[in-house]
Structure formats: structure tokens, C-alpha cells
């Protein structure tokens, strides 16, 4: 393989058999259970990187079912998004993500810098309750519940929320384990079709785990919960802050 052929195909690893195809990445019937809760401001300050700012001590705990996604297949995800601002614009900082499929773990980490780790999340309906769980091996780490479709939400207001940017910390090490890339990345969701949106009563439990420390942002009060059904495209990212000194 000559250098020009290598560079022409060097969009993912392994080069000769990438774990995922090139984007864009479209999701059909992507289902969200998002529970917003109040936590400790000092705990948030320990994990949110500058120059992001934290307006309130809130966290959005998400369970996401993705049965049909371009190149990534059928999988489920769970994690925490922290409401933040950058230059006065409100968005969300993706703090943790746990999922059960290799391709989106590889693609999410390599392209955008999503903080993805392997685990066993689930989202299902049990009689009159929407139930989200996160297990790491045999250990239950998170349980979220919501009354099933209690009250419909205004679609225009929900769609407005999808226009907000999302941020991640992308870190890729050098061969000596020093940081080769250390950047704040921004991305947007695009072409959103909202098929359903509901709110209802909710509960959330987080449990201590050494390698899935979601409980380090403790639940002090559940504020709200929404259940959404969507089609959407995951937009590619852009670097908004580089933490490494300029070369040269």
C-alpha cells in the first residue's frame, strides 16, 4: 500500500477493515428517556472543562434506544449530559456514555470524542411504565422510570431544543501516552423529525461503580422527564477550543 492509497482510506481504524463506514449517520425511530435532575455544583465543576460554563446544577440522564442507525446497527445507550453555555449560547456537555455495540463506540470516540464505554443499557415498556436501566456486567448502575405517555408535549418547543449545540472533550494519546489531541468539540443534530413527545412523573437511582461513576453526580431532586421518538441525523463536529499549546 503506497502513501497516497493509505491516506485515501485513512478515515478509521483498522485501515483495511474499518469498524464503521463514513457518515453521515441517520437514526430512525431513535427513542429517548431523558430525566433531568438537580445535583451538586461542586461535583459539576470537577468534571466540566473550561471554557464551558455551568448555569445551574442540573444533569440530564439519558436512556436512548437506537434500533436502526446507519453503519452502527441496533443498539442502546445510556449516560449523562450536563447543561452548559459557551459564549452565552446554551448547549449540553456530554459527560458519560455507556452502550452495547462496538461500531458506535469506535466511531463515536474516534470522530467526535464521545466518552463511550462498553456496558449493557436497556430501555423498555413495562405495563404502564417506561423503564431504563444500565448494567455493567452483573452490577446495576442506573435505573430510570417514567409514567408512560402521561402528557403530550408541544412539538415546536421540543424541536427547538434539538437546535442547541452539544460539546465533548476529545482526547487521543500520542504513542508515549502524552496527549496528541486534546480539544473541545461541538456538534449539532440535524434533519430532526419528531414522531412523539411526552412528559410524566419520573424516578432515578444511580449506584456507585468504580468504572462507571455516574453516581459522582448525585441525584438531589428529579426535576422533569421526557420521552421522545425521533428520526435524526448526527452531524459531524468542529473544534471550538484546543487545549494544547500551538506548535511552532
Task: Describe, in short, the structure shown.
By secondary structure, this protein is mainly β.
Topology summary:
Blueprint: H1 3-9, E1 25-38, H2 41-47, E2 58-69, E3 73-86, E4 89-99, H3 102-112, E5 116-118, E6 120-126, E7 129-136, E8 139-147, E9 151-152, H4 155-161, E10 166-173, E11 179-187, E12 189-199, E13 202-206, E14 221-234, E15 238-242
Parallel strand pairs: 4-5, 4-10
Antiparallel strand pairs: 1-2, 1-14, 2-3, 3-4, 6-7, 7-8, 8-13, 9-12, 10-11, 11-15, 12-14
Family: Belongs to the ADC family.
Protein name: Acetoacetate decarboxylase
Keywords: Decarboxylase, Lyase, Schiff base
Describe the model.
- By secondary structure, the chain is mainly beta.
- The chain has a single domain, classed as Acetoacetate decarboxylase-like (Beta Barrel).
- It contains four helices and 15 strands.
- The protein has helices spanning 3-9, 41-47, 102-112, 155-161, and strands at 25-38, 58-69, 73-86, 89-99, 116-118, 120-126, 129-136, 139-147, 151-152, 166-173, 179-187, 189-199, 202-206, 221-234, 238-242.
- A hairpin with a 3-residue loop joins strand 2 and strand 3 (73-86).
- It is globular, with a radius of gyration of 18 Å.
- It starts with a helix and ends in a 6-residue tail after the last strand.
Amino acid at each position: 500500500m503506497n502513501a497516497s492509497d493509505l491516506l485515501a482510506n485513512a478515515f478509521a481504524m483498522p485501515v483495511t477493515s474499518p469498524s464503521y463506514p463514513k457518515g453521515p449517520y441517520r437514526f430512525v425511530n431513535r427513542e429517548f428517556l431523558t430525566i433531568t435532575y438537580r445535583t451538586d455544583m461542586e461535583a459539576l465543576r470537577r468534571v466540566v472543562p473550561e471554557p464551558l460554563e455551568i448555569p445551574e446544577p442540573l444533569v440530564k440522564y439519558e436512556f436512548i434506544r437506537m434500533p436502526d442507525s446507519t453503519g452502527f446497527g441496533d443498539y442502546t445507550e445510556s449516560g449523562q449530559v450536563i447543561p452548559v453555555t459557551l459564549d452565552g449560547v446554551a448547549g449540553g456537555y456530554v459527560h458519560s456514555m455507556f452502550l452495547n455495540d462496538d461500531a458506535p463506540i469506535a466511531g463515536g470516540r474516534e470522530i467526535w470524542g464521545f466518552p463511550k464505554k462498553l456496558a449493557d443499557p436497556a430501555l423498555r415498556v413495562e405495563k404502564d411504565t417506561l423503564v431504563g436501566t444500565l448494567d455493567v456486567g452483573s452490577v446495576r448502575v442506573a435505573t430510570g422510570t417514567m409514567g408512560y405517555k402521561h402528557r403530550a408535549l408541544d412539538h415546536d418547543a421540543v424541536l427547538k431544543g434539538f437546535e442547541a449545540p452539544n460539546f465533548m472533550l476529545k482526547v487521543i494519546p500520542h504513542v508515549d501516552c502524552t496527549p496528541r489531541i486534546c480539544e473541545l468539540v461541538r456538534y449539532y443534530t440535524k434533519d430532526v423529525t419528531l414522531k412523539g413527545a411526552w412528559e410524566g412523573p419520573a424516578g432515578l437511582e444511580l449506584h456507585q461503580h468504580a468504572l462507571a461513576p455516574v453516581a459522582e453526580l448525585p441525584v438531589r431532586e428529579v426535576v422533569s422527564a421526557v420521552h421522545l421518538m425521533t428520526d435524526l441525523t448526527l452531524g459531524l463536529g468542529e473544534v471550538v477550543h484546543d487545549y494544547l499549546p500551538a506548535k511552532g
